[in-house]
Please model this.
Amino acid sequence: MEHISFPPLSRVAICGGTHGNEMTGVYVVREMKKKKVDKVGCVSVMTVLSNPEAVKVCRRYMETDLNRCFPDALLSAPLTASSPHEMKRAHELNALLGPKGSPQAVNLLCDIHNTTANMGICFIFYRFDWIALHLFKYVQSKTSFGPVRAIQFDTPLSEAYSLESVAKHGFALEVGPQPTGVVRADIYNMVTETLDLIMEWLEQFNSGSVFEGGEVEAFRKTQSLDYPRDPTTDEITAAIHPQLQDNDFKLLRAGDPIFWPFTGEAVKYEGEEAYPFFVNECAYYEKKVAFHLARKISISLPSISVKKN
Model:
């Protein structure tokens, strides 16, 4: 592949508390603010508590999911007095960190999230963003823990709905398992180590280092499955099967059990081979998602470096 040069990545945003009960990002941002971390080498660092009102009451959101408020159509829609709190906050964050798609947007945004699913640490991105993918490749090769995975949602940038989409380059850092409202030291340390490696990579990139291309493995979302439900009441009638629980990213084959009904026999998977993730995620019950499915893909990366004047 042809070598690609990018402008310096001099403005970086580290965000937490987009969901007010996902505590790792909340505490990471608070600690960075206490230590007045606003510059690392030649990189200006902005730390943002994304949804402080939800953080105060330790709730995912006040009125609507902030991390679904950033598609172009919503950001360009006028606000009214009755607009949900999170929609108003999304406009504020877009002005602070974007505007989305503009030359003024921050160079890189990392939004820290927790999941109750057993997913380890995952970089989540929308498109083949070579900066985000090279960062993933670097972190994956350097961490003292593992595994580190990449997840791709095949969504056009204009329809991308989460906070990191307002930056020129961005990704969500999804880490778990961690219950809502709780901070775990092991998860916290995984995130701080990852952020240190990200800053290390940025310093090397901005100093003129060339990062060679190569292949990385990622998981591309293909579909979502809901729980079995009572057709009359819409209440769920089964839980995640014990053989699937805590087995995110383990290959799922036709005939494997996926749900354990409260009465009756196990429900078995009937589709093509796929990899489940966000299995039994607490926050997805309201979204009617028991887990997502993905297929494994290989992405060829070009070599990259900073653009020289």
In short: The first strand starts at residue 4 and ends at 6. The chain has a mean pLDDT of 96. The two ends are 23 Å apart (CA to CA).
